Amino acid sequence: MYSTLISVAQLQALHASGTPCKVFDCSFDLTQPQAGRAMYEDCHIAGAVYADLNTDLSAKGDPLTTGAQSGGRHPLPSREHFALWLHSMGFDNTMQAVVYDRQGANYCGRLWWMLKWLGHDAAAVLDGGLQAWAAAGGAQAAGAASSQASANSAEFVVSAPQVTLLSADTVLEHLGHPEQTIVDARATPRFKGEVEPLDPVAGHIPGALNRPFTQNLTPEGVFKPASVLRAEFDALLGTQASQHVVHHCGSGVSAIPNLLAMEIAGLGGSALFAGSWSEWCGDASRPVAKG
Asked: Catalytic one among 21, 26, 108, 249?
């Protein structure tokens, strides 16, 4: 079982062994929401299905009617609703999930975390994404996805979460307390409030630390070794325990590579504020910092 990263060679070995496995392509573009599906249809790992950030991995509409579990631009759907989507894709509790994108693990981490949120530990990010798969000569395909579930497909059963989800109210309640350290994964100019291309207010949550999620990768596009990640997070967090760390970004998506990197580094137990900056800045009573 793979629960954090899986290499191209390991995925190829899984396929060869016949181990039950489902591969999800999570490619996306925030500025062109239809581009992700077009990328998938142009080229994807053979046998992979597509997971759309906007329509499959987020709840749309009024949270009171959709059952959304967070606010912000990409609110989490209810765990039960997401389980139904997994079943519709032919995925069940016996399978290894492998997720990837072609944007430096920016989007596929969302599905990895959501599977953990439903209690499914056998979920891993393909290290290096589609680029690494293609470079190794992995089998690829093109075309639109077809329906995956069959009449005999087993339902996906939700169990206890393996990750921690925090609300805006909880983050606000503990703001400034020593048992909470907020790590913001956005690019530094956005963190500082110098630019804000997506949300109505620029800035960051007071007291937050900044670690752009791109810092987790090598120039080759794979995650840095665990020892390097450990040293970098130790330098960022000082003596703060990993269990006190809360990750966030713009809408709870690109924060997850930081959370995953901490898991790889042996620093488990950090939480996700899924609503992130887009939810936080939507309430004028919440404090905002710049610089």
From this structure: 249
What domain range is 117 assigned to? 5-141
pLDDT digits (tens, 9 = 90+) for 160-197: 999 999 999 999 999 999 999 999 999 999 999 999 99
The pLDDT assigned to 178 comes to: 92
Nearest CA to 163 out of 278, 260, 59, 261 is that of 260
- Per the CB < 8 A criterion, the answer to whether 285 and 268 are in contact is no
Amino acid letter, 87: H
In a domain, 200, yes or no: yes
| DSSP H/E element including 277 | helix 276-280
Q: What is the CATH number of the domain that holds 268?
A: 3.40.250.10
Do the domain assignments include residue 106? yes
Q: Where are the alpha helices (DSSP H) in 174-240?
A: 188-192, 226-237
Catalytic residue list contains 249? yes
